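Quiz preparation item.
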């Protein structure tokens, strides 16, 4: 009986709160985020976004057919307002990849996920 009670208590203690709650602060956005199975420039690709701590970043389309990837630089502003997080990017060049320049997007950031528009990225 004692062995069963110990085993049950270990199982009960090891269960924790796995909810992916939003994280505050600019550092939670910094890092590399990816989403697979996107069509970019009419080709299947993985979309990778890297946010740097200096408010600059790179968005890359990594094509599954093995052709060279396309990379685009941007600058970003992240602001938290009344419990919501907003992200605005400005492309460094004359191009657009998925997102409009100078448009404010409502985003959700957790330790493992970034929801930006209708795309959910995972942290890499």
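Solution:
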């Amino acid at each position: 009986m004692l062995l069963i009670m110990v085993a049950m208590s270990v199982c009960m203690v090891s269960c924790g709160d796995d909810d992916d709650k939003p994280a505050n602060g600019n550092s939670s956005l910094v890092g590399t985020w990816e989403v697979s199975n996107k069509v970019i420039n009419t080709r299947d690709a993985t979309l990778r976004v890297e946010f740097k701590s200096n408010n600059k970043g790179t968005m890359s389309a990594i094509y599954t057919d093995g052709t060279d990837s396309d990379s685009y630089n941007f600058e970003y502003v992240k602001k938290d307002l009344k419990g919501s997080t907003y992200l605005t990017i400005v492309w460094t060049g004359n191009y657009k990849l998925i997102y409009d320049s100078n448009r404010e997007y409502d985003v959700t950031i957790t330790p493992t996920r970034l929801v930006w528009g209708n795309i959910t990225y995972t942290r890499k």
